[in-house]
Amino acid sequence: MNQPLLSVKDLKTYFPTKKIFFNKERQVIKAVDGINFQVNKGETLGIVGESGCGKSTMGRSILRLIEPTEGSIKFEGKEVTTLNQKDLRKLRSNMQIVFQDPFASLNPKMTVGSILGEALATHQLGQSSKERKEKVKELLGKVGLSPIHIERYPHEFSGGQRQRIGIARAIAVNPALIIADEPVSALDVSVQAQILNLFQDLKETLGLTYIFIAHDLSVVKHVSDRIGVMYLGKIVELSDKKQLFQNPLHPYTQALISAVPTLDPDAKKDRIILSGDVPSPSSPPSGCAFHTRCMYRKNVCENVKPREITVSPGRLVNCHMYDEDYFVEFL
Ligand code: SF4
Q1: Which end of the chain is flanked by fewer CB atoms within 10 Å, N or C?
Q2: Is the CB of 234 under 6 A from ligand 1?
Q3: Is 307 in the pocket of ligand 1 (CB under 6 A)?
Q4: Three-class SS state of 14
Q5: Residue of the nearest CA to atom 5 in ligand 1?
Q6: Domains in the chain, ordered, with CATH?
Q7: Which of 6, 7, 41 is nearest to 207 (CA)?
């Protein structure tokens, strides 16, 4: 068994909402509500779910760009949640993030050379500005851009090129782990494949580990070794990619997979259409949070929260159908 690079236990990130006039109690949005997983060195864990399910908040909480409310995050065995600002800064050279919108995350007043040079200087990489300039040129080459781009500003690049700059900034500081938060969802489909291939190439050449967050299951399928499916702040199924696609267990996973388009005209798929919208995380349904949309729900689902069931090594599901205490209700 590989040594986990990252271990997340019972992670919760809650946001209090504004007090409503007649309401004595302040409401709480449970954006991340008790998440557990490990990521091994060199693997890609895909996290998929509809928008608003808490996957981006989870990614930012791991880096402490948003402070988690409870839980443990261990990176290379070291607890992240209790680090002071100085140690947190050091840790951030090991854990980087690539954002969805590269344009918003790049300073429009700085050239690409300055953006990447600044990342190197912040983490004391490169002795002199000349040395850093050489490193910047090298970085541009690694992400498929020409060194002649060094003096250009972000607005002079296409969306795909800007995302390459975002990736170059992330790898500039030699991280072990990159959290990619919807890194291709703002790009044209033709450019998406190029950026996904770049992620794959860099993983192999630099020995990187990824948490790859996306709402599109076909994108996550392309890059991941294992996949976690999120719904209303929880991972409802965690599995090896092949098993997840061959035999999805959770009804929500079944619905997501049924909606993935296939190029095989002989592949027969009955699309599962979920009724209703995703409930608000400020007032999640009782019992199983998915019960308002689930085609298999029973009375127990409305009243009792499902436990995390290990159905086989490394395969977890949050559903009463797989719980020996309740499965008879589904026969
Ligand atoms: Fe559906 Fe019940 Fe399973 Fe929830 S616990 S996913 S409602 S069958």
Answers
A1: C
A2: no
A3: no
A4: strand
A5: 319
A6: 6-94+175-330 (3.40.50.300), 105-174 (no CATH)
A7: 41
Judge if the beta carbon of residue 219 lies within 6 A of ligand 1: no
Establish whether residue 306 lines the binding site of ligand 1, counting it when its CB lies within 6 angstroms of any ligand atom.
yes
316 Cβ below 6 A of ligand 1? no
217 C-alpha to ligand 1 centroid (Å) = 21
Supply the DSSP symbol for 187: S
Q: How far does residue 299's CA lie from ligand 1's centre (Å)?
A: 10
Which among 297, 302, 317, 326 is the best mutation to test ligand 1's pocket, defined by most ligand atoms within 8 Å of the CB?
297
Q: Whose CA is nearest to atom 3 of ligand 1?
A: 319
Say how many Å lie between the CA of residue 286 and the centre of ligand 1: 12
Extract the tokens encoding 69.
């409310």
Q: What is the pTM of this model?
A: 0.93
| Distance (Å, whole) CA 230 – CA 233 | 7
Contact, 125 vs 132, CB < 8 A? Answer: yes
Specify the pLDDT at position 128. 87
Q: How far is the CA of 317 from the centre of ligand 1 (A)?
A: 10
Task: Find, among 266, 263, 281, the residue nearest to 50 by Cα.
Answer: 281
Give the pLDDT of the chain (331 residues) as one tens digit per residue.
557 999 999 999 999 887 666 666 778 999 999 999 999 999 999 999 998 899 999 999 999 999 999 999 999 999 999 999 999 988 888 999 999 887 788 899 999 999 999 999 988 888 888 999 999 999 999 999 999 999 999 999 999 999 999 999 999 999 999 999 999 998 999 999 999 999 999 999 999 999 999 999 999 999 999 999 999 999 999 999 999 999 999 999 999 999 887 766 666 668 888 887 889 888 899 999 999 999 999 999 999 999 999 999 999 999 999 999 999 999 8
